[in-house]
Amino acid sequence: MTLVYLMINGLQIGSIYALVALGYSMVYGIVKLVNFAHGDIIMTGAYCTWYLMSRFSVPAMPAVFASIVFCAALGTLIERVAYRPLRKSDRLSLLVTAIGVSLFLQNMVQLLFSANPRMFTNIFTGTVTIGERQFSSATAVTIGVSVVLMAGLTLLVKKTKIGKAMRTVSEDNETAQLMGINVNNTISFTFALGSALAAVGSVFYCCSYSQIQPTMGSMLGLKAFVAAVLGGIGSIPGAMAGGLCIGIAESLTKGVISSKLTDAVVFGILIVVLLIKPSGIFGRHQNEKV
Questions:
Q1: 33: pLDDT confidence band, cut at 50, 70 and 90?
Q2: Cα–chain-centroid distance for residue 229?
Q3: In the chain, what is the straight-line distance between the N-terminal and C-terminal CA atoms, in Å?
Q4: Between the chain's N and C termini, which has fewer beta carbons within 10 Å?
């Protein structure tokens, strides 16, 4: 496999990691919570799309759109029921709650659909020719749509009223409230937005790997979390850059060294980042008051 193909494959999986990492980063940036249930929202998005397509013969695009709406509503519900009552508690309580929500979602899906893997139909069939090289349509769509979504998110955060509210709440919660910003609605919107991006990422992931199962969000979520830390958790450009770096590193490891070492390389990157630059590539160092 040539270097060009490895890089393209890396950009494809990296785009998925970036979409998922954005959810981790936005939620951490606004409420300082590592939402370990985020990986399972990806899983529920995949199951929602699969269920609508296989059981009700819903066309692909309406099923994907319904999955995005479902995940956005689920993210908002989780924030409202599980995290908001504990917002002023210590970080450990929130972390344990996030793990509890993650296990709840996994077990709920196992109860509804069993633990057996399900086949997910690739909705982007065919190939795309660029120069003398051919790539799958799934690869081209994943990279193209991800770039558009990341650009749209950047504009939303920088140019819109809700984006400015998100940035203000992330800087200082209490000051934002004094300025008339509805903090609760802003945080709920952030959870919904991150969950919707995760639903899009889940569809692209399933089109590439074709199987879904209740625990599929665990490793995907962990790698996206590593991407968020690499870029600087809390930073939107950092999540994008971290996702692409992790995807390319994973692809090069598979093609050049061994597919058995991909997870070791990804988590090795996490260890190196934490040792050398804990704030990540785009992260800001914060002085702690004593």
A1: confident
A2: 13
A3: 54
A4: C
